[in-house]
Amino acid sequence: MIDTTKGFTLTREIDATPEELWTAWTDPDELAHWWHPRGVTTPRDSVTVDLRVGGAYTYTMVNDSTGDEYPTGGVYREIVPTERLVFTWGNPDDDPDDAPVVTVTFESLGELTLMTFQLQGVDGTPGDESFYDGWVSALDVLVEHAQGPHVFG
Which end of the chain is more exposed for a tag (fewer CB within 10 A), N or C? Predict the structure, then answer.
């Protein structure tokens, strides 16, 4: 089992609706646009989503400079459309019971949405050039995607 005392939380106030952010987190076409830190891309053909409790997702991030590939995946544990998404995160072959867990919530603030991202099971601190910095960068890419000249869905 994972050590839930390890982890971190990130928040963003985003100029998008909870519905738009939900789509960004659950639609394979949308995920390919942002589910990676800067300097990395996620080819659309690498993204699969079986959006149901117990369903799996996979994607592969590719380093733009080196071509190194980072297969990633997990299993959905809780799905409350436009409000809450909980899933394991790591290597697609990992035992889901031993994988870190991501919880993402969306709360309408009127014209903005408060998105809270929590990762449990791994340490992360600013400047680690690993989990924390990677997710900060990926969420920055998400914000740019959500607030850019884009139509969801």
Answer: N
* Residue 89 structural domain: 7-147
Q: How many separate domains does the chain show?
A: 1
> Helices in 27-105 by DSSP H: which ranges?
28-34
Euclidean distance between CA atoms 62 and 3, whole angstroms? 28
Residues in the chain: 153
- CATH number at 63 reads 3.30.530.20
- Of residues 27, 69, 30, the one with CA closest to residue 49: 27
DSSP state of 45: G
Q: Is residue 129's pLDDT more than 90?
A: no
Is residue 114 within 8 Å of 24, Cβ to Cβ?
no
Query: pLDDT tens, 90-123?
Result: 999 889 889 999 999 999 999 999 999 999 999 9
55-69 tens-digit pLDDT: 999 999 999 999 999
